């Protein structure tokens, strides 16, 4: 098989300008796969319609949820909350033939392969605390005092878990078991909306926001689970970094005002994840 493994995240299709960017996303080769690393949109229909459109174009689409997909916005006719909403999105993806974190991790055998492509969904647990704070409560209080509070606090409901951090810990435990059971002879591409390590958040304008960006529980997954590359989004700071010799790719498009400020305002939404090894 030839073709490329491509990735994008944070399409935020509620913005008409971003929908125009999505319309421009095409495979360069009929065998290309597209990774969509979360924050497609806020409403249920926006998410499923966009994935359907991309699935019609790419040989395979691999999706993992962002925090925005998990919101229950007041204007959305789909009123499901928390895990039920996530599982309803997974069911829609199965109907559309889009792979999710609930499916068997597929093997990529095109350019840069073979690699096991693993879409993950691990959320956050408030362990990336605001500067000078030592508990979740102190960290949240610091964020409120700074006026930097993630909208998840109002729209991302954790049911049936008591808290978002409980949901995170359950996701981490289940995902860790699956990753540990993979063939140790095959490298992985780990895909998660939130970064697996804290360092990428250190250049954010508001350090208080990091508590909604990930968890310390995944800090060694890139080495433990043999990642050839880690793909993430959420920060809206597209760039390439390296930790312990493993490449991390932030592949977000972001909001129109953000992508207009980059590269002469021309969005280059899709990134090649692997090259020939
Ligand atoms: Fe986003
Ligand atoms: Fe996000």
Quote the average pLDDT.
96
CATH topology, by name, is: Purple Acid Phosphatase, chain A, domain 2
- Segments where pLDDT lies below 50 for 5+ residues? none
Head-to-tail CA distance between termini: 15 Å
What is the strand arrangement across the widest sheet? 4-5-6-7-9-8
CATH architecture: 4-Layer Sandwich
General form = globular
So what's the CATH class?
Answer: Alpha Beta
Class inferred from helices and paired strands: alpha/beta
Give a list of the ligands: fe (ii) ion
Brief summary of the model shown:
This protein has 277 residues and is an alpha/beta fold. It has helices at residues 16-23, 44-57, 82-96, 136-146, 152-155, 164-180, 221-224, 256-260; strands spanning 5-8, 33-36, 60-63, 107-108, 115-119, 188-191, 227-232, 239-243, 246-250, 271-272. A 6-stranded mixed beta sheet has the order 4-5-6-7-9-8.
């Amino acid at each position: 098989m030839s073709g490329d493994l491509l990735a994008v995240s944070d399409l935020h299709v509620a913005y008409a300008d971003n929908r125009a960017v999505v319309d421009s996303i095409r495979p360069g080769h009929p065998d290309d796969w597209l990774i969509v690393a979360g924050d497609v949109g806020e409403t249920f229909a926006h998410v499923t319609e966009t994935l359907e459109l991309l699935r019609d174009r790419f040989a395979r689409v691999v999706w993992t949820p962002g925090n925005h997909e998990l919101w229950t916005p007041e204007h959305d006719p789909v009123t499901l909350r928390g895990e039920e909403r996530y599982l309803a999105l997974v069911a829609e993806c199965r109907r559309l033939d889009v792979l999710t974190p609930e499916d068997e991790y597929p093997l990529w055998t095109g350019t840069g392969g073979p690699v096991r492509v693993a879409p993950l969904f691990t959320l956050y647990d408030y362990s990336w605390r605001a500067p000078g704070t030592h508990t979740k409560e102190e960290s949240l209080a610091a964020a409120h005092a700074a006026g930097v509070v993630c909208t998840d606090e109002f729209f991302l409901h954790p049911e049936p878990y008591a808290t978002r951090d409980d949901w995170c810990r359950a996701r981490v435990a289940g995902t860790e078991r699956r990753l540990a059971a993979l063939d140790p002879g095959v490298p992985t591409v780990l895909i998660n909306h939130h970064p697996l390590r804290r360092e990428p958040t250190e250049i954010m304008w508001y350090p208080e926001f990091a508590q909604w960006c990930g968890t310390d529980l995944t800090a060694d997954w890139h080495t433990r689970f043999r990642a050839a590359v880690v793909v993430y989004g959420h920060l809206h700071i597209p760039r390439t970094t390296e930790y312990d010799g493993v490449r991390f790719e932030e592949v977000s498009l972001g909001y129109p005002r953000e992508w207009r400020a980059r590269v002469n305002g021309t969005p280059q939404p899709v990134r090649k994840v692997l090259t020939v090894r």
